[in-house]
Amino acid sequence: MCSLFKLTFLLAITSLTFSYGQENLKYKIHSHNDYEQSIPLWNAYGNGVTSIEIDVFLKNDTLYVTHEPTEIKKKRTIENLYLIPLQKTIYLQLGNQQEVQLLIDIKSEAHATLKKLVETLQNFPDLIKAENISFVISGNRPEPELYINYPDYIQFDYQSLETISNTEILNKIALISLPFKYFSNWNGKGRLTKDDYKKVSTIIDKAHSFKKPFRFWGTPDSKTAWKTFTNLGVDFINTDVPADASKYLKTLKNRVYHNSFHSDVYKPTFASDRKNSPVKNIILLIGDGNGLSQISSAVLANNGELTLTQLKSIGFIKTQSADDFTTDSAAAGTAIATGEKTYNRAIGMNSNRKPIENITELLYKYQFNSGCITTDEITGATPASFYSHQLDRDMTNATALDLVNSKLSLFIGGGSDTFQNKFSKSNFSILNSIDKIQNSKKEKVGFFFSEKDVPSMMNGRGNILAEATKKGLAFLNKKNKPFFLMVEGAKIDSYGHQNNIAGIISEGIDFDTAITEAIKFADTTGNTLVIITADHETSGLSLPQGNVKEKIIEGDFTTYDHTGTMVPIFAYGPQSDKFSGIYENNKVFHKIKEVLNIK
Q1: Does the pLDDT at position 539 exceed 50?
Q2: Which ranges in the chain are annotated with CATH 3.20.20.190?
Q3: What backbone torsions phi and psi does residue 220 show, to the nearest 5 degrees?
Q4: CA 287 to chain centre
Q5: What span, in angstroms and rounded, lies between the C-alpha atoms of 216 and 181?
Q6: In whole numbers, what is the pLDDT of the chain averaged over residues?
Q7: Which residues make up the CATH 3.40.720.10 domain(s) of the chain?
Q8: Distance CA 45, CA 36 (A)
Q9: In terms of Cα–Cα distance, which of 312, 310, 319, 336 is closest to 512?
Q10: Confidence of residue 25 (pLDDT cuts 50, 70, 90)
């Protein structure tokens, strides 16, 4: 039999043409040896699986579900394990009532077993009449010319590529199945070799020329394999872990992103970089939730580089809060802004729930101007950590009042609705256009992107973060005083919580456009230190596959929450080398003091 298979396959490979467009295919999951699951049928059915394999053996006029007669368990009959439960799903309208293909793999003699199967199925009229349930015979089968002798509800698994000219016989074939090992020894790790990929693709195309769905058996069983076979156009994805395969493939469309955003990469001069010269200004950029994988996704989707990746001074910071392994943005922002770790949800408060001086308040004493720019509401946890002191991040109205009375000279962000009438007696001039910022002669200015939350890049926000950074820097620089500016790319974190790779990448690339403005400014002045980091990582992102040339990235996630992993920190400008190494997040504050020579 093996020689016949190989000869048939060899002949098929030599002269095939594409005749079944992959764009017309829709994958289905096949639960291989489903009866070996801890809960047969229900595990597969409950996870939306549409093809279920049942090995049967006829013994003592009973159809047992088993691979070998020596493994028979008395009560494990096809009726008990599959037919009766499936009938109840119809009667009780359980699950999604999806189409279900029972691939009955006959292990005993074909004719006698099939005869008994037909007799058995006659006792389940609801099943054989159901439009969404089909019975397909695999394993030991009669010769194809005998297929037409069986009832209409009985179809067959054709395991050859030999042409069938008889339309009546062809109509009895439900799918074509072939052993994967005859074409490739691939184990599901890495990639198919070029030759194997071509060979496998050719076989799939040939099988589709029959206008029938196709399945490989004996395939590697991994995420990489499931995606590869789906992309190749295999109709039934063979798996022993149907729940895992279903979860992975159902979310694949939302986890693969073809990028259309772009950040023009700026090549720094490095004229002032790492020089042991005085630092006048500090620009701190925080990508909320922007871990190493998030940065990598933006890099790989942006032709393989960003302005960020041009920098030479790189380190890592540990993000744990004072009371938890995994920080939130409030505790992380407070640690960076004040130099002291604190409890989650705290804004500018220490672990004893007392206010602690932040960097903008400290630098105000040294004649610095300060500003905060964010794509979040301006009262969000990260920007608030640089001007406010509240026991909990949700104390929004109190945080807003802290902003009105803060030492900031500039703020730009969302959430104007929170500030109704709050600026009437303040020194802030609220501008109605971002273009007015850089030429404003006011002492303190603010601008709101939006009444509530700021739109994302995916929702048409446009280039406003880079523009705000550029104009904010111009405003602060014209005051002829040293300044500190914090710029937050807030929505990298938002999309991380959603496990949305498209949003992570678009926001990460947009964040890089703001970094570009900061690096350009640093090159112009020669006395500005730029620091880029994150408050924490969000989502446990990994990047299993993609295509740099086509800007395609697949993201996979371990959580919808923050993680405890270290995050990168980059620096550029005078004394930037002091930010290399691995250290706690609260050390960033002390390093800023050090380079500014503040004791």
Answers
A1: yes
A2: 2-256
A3: -60, 150
A4: 17
A5: 9
A6: 94
A7: 259-518+528-557
A8: 14
A9: 310
A10: very low
Query: What phi and psi, each to the nearest 5 degrees, are found at residue 446?
Result: -140, 155
**CA geometry: angle 375, 377, 378, nearest 5 deg:** 95
Q: Is 535 annotated as a binding residue?
A: yes
> Percent of the chain scored above 70 by pLDDT?
96
Query: What's the CA gap between 297 and 304, in Å, rounded?
Result: 9
439 CB contacts (<8 Å, ≥6 apart)? none
Q: 58 by DSSP, 3-state: which?
A: strand
In the numeric block, the tokens 């159809």 are attached to 63
Least Cα distance to 46 among 247, 217, 220, 221 occurs for 247
Residue 436 binned pLDDT confidence (cut-offs 50, 70, 90): very high
| Average pLDDT of the residues in 181-193 | 95
Alpha-helical regions (H) of 235-389: 242-255, 292-301, 329-338, 359-364, 381-384
pTM of the model: 0.88
Question: Which CATH number is associated with domain 2-256?
Answer: 3.20.20.190
Instruction: Compute the Cα dihedral for 37, 40, 41, 47 and give only its sign.
Output: negative
pLDDT of the residue at 95: 81
Q: Is residue 536 annotated as involved in ligand binding?
A: yes
Q: Does 426 qualify as catalytic in the annotation? A: no
C-alpha 373/C-alpha 362 separation (Å) is: 19
Residue 503 makes CB contacts below 8 A (sequence gap 6+) with 456, 457, 458, 491, 494, 495
DSSP state of 427: S
Pair 535, 325: CB distance under 8 Å: no
Higher pLDDT, 113 or 4: 113
- CA–CA distance, 232 with 191 (Å, rounded to integer): 13
Residue 171 phi/psi, 5-degree rounding, is: -70, -20
Residue 10 has pLDDT above 70, yes or no: no
- Separation between Cα atoms, residue 453 and residue 415, nearest integer Å: 6
- Contact status, residue 215 vs residue 235, Cβ threshold 8 Å: yes
Q: Is the pLDDT of residue 394 over 70?
A: yes
Select from 3.40.720.10, 3.40.50.1220, 3.40.50.170, 3.30.420.40 the CATH code of 259-518+528-557: 3.40.720.10
Q: What band does 72 get if pLDDT is binned at 50, 70 and 90?
A: very high
The total number of residues written for the chain in this structure:
599
Q: Which position among 184, 329, 409, 416 bears the catalytic label?
A: 329
Report whether 497 belongs to an annotated binding site.
yes
Q: Which three-class secondary structure state does DSSP give residue 445?
A: strand
User: In this model, does residue 65 exceed pLDDT 70?
Assistant: yes
Q: Answer yes or no: is 382 a known binding residue.
A: yes
Residue 96 has a pLDDT of 83
* Separation CA 343–CA 351 (nearest Å): 6
